[in-house]
Every structure is written in C-alpha cells, then in structure tokens.
Amino acid sequence: MDQPGPQRKTRQIDIGGIPVGGDAPVVVQSMCATRTMDIDATVAQTHQLARAGAGIVRIALDNEKEVAALKEIRAQTKGIVISVDLQENYKIADKVAPHVDKIRYNPGHLHHIEKARTIPQKVRWLVDVARDHNLAIRIGVNCGSVAPAFLAKFPDDQLKAIVESAAYHCDLMDEYGFNRFIVSLKDSDPAKVVEANRRFAQRRPDVPIHLGVTEAGLPPDGIIKTRIAFEKLLAQHIGETIRVSLTLPNERKHEEVVVGHQILADVAAGRFISVPDYGQGLNIISCPSCSRVENERFVELAQQVKELTAYAAQHRITIAVMGCRVNGPGETDDADLGLWCGPTTVNLKKKDRKLGNFSYDDVLPRLRQELDRLIEERADLINQ
C-alpha cells in the first residue's frame, strides 16, 4: 500500500459554511436516490443522509418543473448543505441557485443544448450565477461522458482526455476570477480513478478534489472497488471530499456515508485492505441508485444480474447495469454486456451494439444466453 507522501495542501473553499480543502478534514457526501418531485421522500432521505454524517447532500434536477419541488425541499432541510446536479440541463442553474449551496455541472454535457453558444460562454454564465448567489461549483468529469472535443483530441488516451477536460475548465474558472470550485474525475475502474486523480493533482495542486468511483456497484464488491481507489489517493493526500457510490435500496442509502467515514478512519489509522487478484474475473458495474433512476426495479435487477452470473466468476468479463438515460447509453459502451434501464424496458447491449429492448422479467434469460455465447466465443479463440 502507498505510504503518505509530502502533504498536499489545496486552497480552502466554502460550501454552504463547510470548509473543504486546505487544513479542513475530508468531507463525506452522498446523493438522494428519491425522485425529486416526491418532496416528502426526498426531504426524509436528505435528513437520513445528514444523520449518517453526510456533510453535503446532492439532489439531481432534470428540468424546470422540478424547481418548485426543490424550493420546498430546501425549506424543510434548513441547516443541511445542499448541492444540485444539473445533469444535462445547465440552463436551469439560475432557477435552482437560490435554493442550494453548490451546483455541479458535467463538462461533457454542455454541448448538448444551445449549440450556438460556445463552451466558454456557457461556463461564464454558470460562474456568474454562482457568484451572484454565493455558491460553490463542482466540475464533474465522468469517463462515460467526456466532452467530444477532448475525446477527439486524445483518441488513444481517455485518461488524458479526462484530465485535460478538467484542467481546461479550471483555466476558464481562473480566467473568470472564480476560485470557489472543486473538481471530480470519475471512472468505474479503480485503477483509472487513481491515475486520473494523480495526474490532475500534479497538474493543479491548488484545486480541491472530490473523489468517487462511479458505478462501483453492489456491496461488498462496490465497497472493495471504492476502497482500492480511495486508500491509494487519500494516502497521498489527494481528496478533500468523497462520495461512495453504491447500488442500494432507498432505505439503505445512508450506508454510503457510513462506509465513507469508515474508509477515512481506516486510512487515518493505517488500516488498508489488500486484494491482489481483485478485478481479474467477472466485473459487474452498476451505478448508484439516485433520483435519475427511471424504474425502482433497477436495484433489484442489479442484484439479480449478480446472482445469475455468479457461475461466470472466473471469466474476465464486464457487465454494466445502468439505471438512467443520462449515464446508460455512454457508460455501457465499453462493457462486454450492458443493461441500460428505462421506465418500462431494459436495453441490452454488447459493447456499443444494441441487441434489443426487453421487459425487466425477460431480459435476464437473454442476458444468460449472451453471456454463455460470449464465454464460448472466447474459448474458441483460445483453442484456435
């Protein structure tokens, strides 16, 4: 296990009264899995996460219709620091700004709308909104939705594309005189999370980093993946705030926070796990249950996939189970087999090729067929 190196000390920023970076302790956060329009459930889960020790609670908004619900949620969660995920619709930032402490945008989603406006123009507007409302910003770069311009510029090095995209947006923040921002560079592969964040920390040692392994999956595997990445980075003093992303039913969502605090305590005490052969066999990726999930059966389906495919544990195959249209299409493209869950049907894919739409009940037998076929294909290649 990596031993702590020289102390890395970023600038400190304020998020709703909570200091992040500098000499401040690492902040654990989580995200509501309830539908934002369900005010009572979202309020209850916000309090649930805060009671478990979440310093920041994130809520996702997809459109302007949800702003009224957010306003009421904010009224019932006074004293809890709220971050909002703008998803693919950065244009609602000024509507949500009065009701939150931080906004998170994904650089890879800015090109989708208002194509006549440049990326710098869109970021400048977001900065102006944040400044006017005394908000912090998170620049959230995800492996499955890297900005096309950076993928085109670095076609053979996705990690470089991720780091350069984040660095470019930091440069825009600097140009606009805004320093209350934090950056995240996420992937479902712990090794890539470690390398991307190491590269970025070296590139911008002044910028606070939010750590996360996206689509870590079901416990206990999701916890192990997260620990592998977090332990290495935290031991190198990289990471000022963290989020553990697990596929969990709503009533257990607070376990993300509990696990996050346990990892911090273990790293501080020098307790590290050692899993030398981890990741050599079957790898099931599933996104954390969140408010973007369009059918609550997604969590149940992820568990069923894990049980159904247990017989293939020794095969180096990746199966991705995604719960929404935001992450589903892009983040199943690299998986050997992918299930992208919609409101009533599941899209089954093999790499980036769609195999068809199936009901939640019918997709499992078809997945078994495709998995058996894939195992046979690989066996044939070895025997040739």
What does this structure look like?
The chain has twelve helices and 15 strands. With 384 residues, the protein is an alpha/beta fold. The protein has two domains: 13-269, TIM Barrel, CATH 3.20.20; 283-383, Sulfite Reductase Hemoprotein, domain 1 (2-Layer Sandwich). The strands form three sheets. An eight-stranded parallel beta barrel has the order 3-4-5-6-7-8-9-10, surrounded by six helices. Strands 11-12-13-14-15 form a five-stranded mixed sheet. The model is unreliable at 1-5 (pLDDT under 50). It has helices spanning 39-52, 67-75, 93-96, 119-132, 148-153, 158-175, 190-203, 221-235, 255-269, 297-308, 328-331, 363-383, and strands at 13-15, 18-20, 27-31, 56-60, 81-85, 102-105, 136-142, 181-186, 209-212, 241-243, 283-286, 318-322, 337-341, 345-350, 353-359. Helices cover 38% and strands 19% of the residues.
